[in-house]
Design goal:
- It is a single chain.
- By secondary structure, the chain is of the alpha+beta class.
- Strands 5, 6, 7, 8 and 9 form a 5-stranded antiparallel beta sheet that branches. A two-stranded antiparallel ribbon has the order 1-2. Strands 3-4 form a two-stranded antiparallel ribbon.
- Strand 8 and strand 9 form a beta hairpin.
């Protein structure tokens, strides 16, 4: 989610173009044509959340290309041990072969759901034998907390 800024309050008293700051901060004050001060606040920078859909698409692309080292490098600490590149590679092969989905063909548009402080992105997969879903769960910093190859339509918990 977006970072919330604390309340920002500025109270000023103008006396012959003098500015008295009661609370908050002001970058500067400019006199206008009437002799009163105009308070110009500094631009507020709000950290935007990572582009989760794009991160999920990039992750899927790396999986399809077999770049499991790059994918596992973005795992958070909670899954890094069990989600090493070899485990991820084996899971992708099993999904395609033993579970009967077939080879990856293409994918559809990602769907994003925010669940608490996590963001879940599902990408529908067009596989050779049956459709599936690729699900990635991100923390607020864009690290991967979970990654699944699923049957089509598994609901987000």
């Amino acid at each position: 989610m977006f970072n919330r800024l604390g309340k920002f309050g500025v109270a000023v008293t103008v006396a012959s173009s003098a500015l008295v700051l009661v609370t908050g901060t002001v970058s500067h004050a400019l006199p206008d044509t009437t002799g009163t001060a105009v308070v110009v606040r500094p631009p507020v920078t709000v950290a935007s959340p990572p582009p989760y859909k794009q991160l999920a698409l990039k992750t899927l692309d790396q999986v399809v290309k077999g770049n499991f080292v790059a994918v596992s490098a973005r795992f958070d600490d909670s899954i890094r041990q069990e989600g090493n590149p070899a485990v991820l590679s084996n899971a992708w092969k099993e999904y395609q072969n033993q579970l009967g989905f077939g080879r990856y063909q293409s994918h559809g548009a990602p769907r994003q759901v925010v669940s608490g402080d996590r963001t879940v992105v599902d990408i529908p997969l067009r596989m050779a034998k049956q459709p599936g879903d690729f699900r990635v769960v991100f923390d607020g910093k864009g690290h991967i907390e979970g990654l699944w190859f699923l049957k089509k339509g598994v609901p987000v918990p």
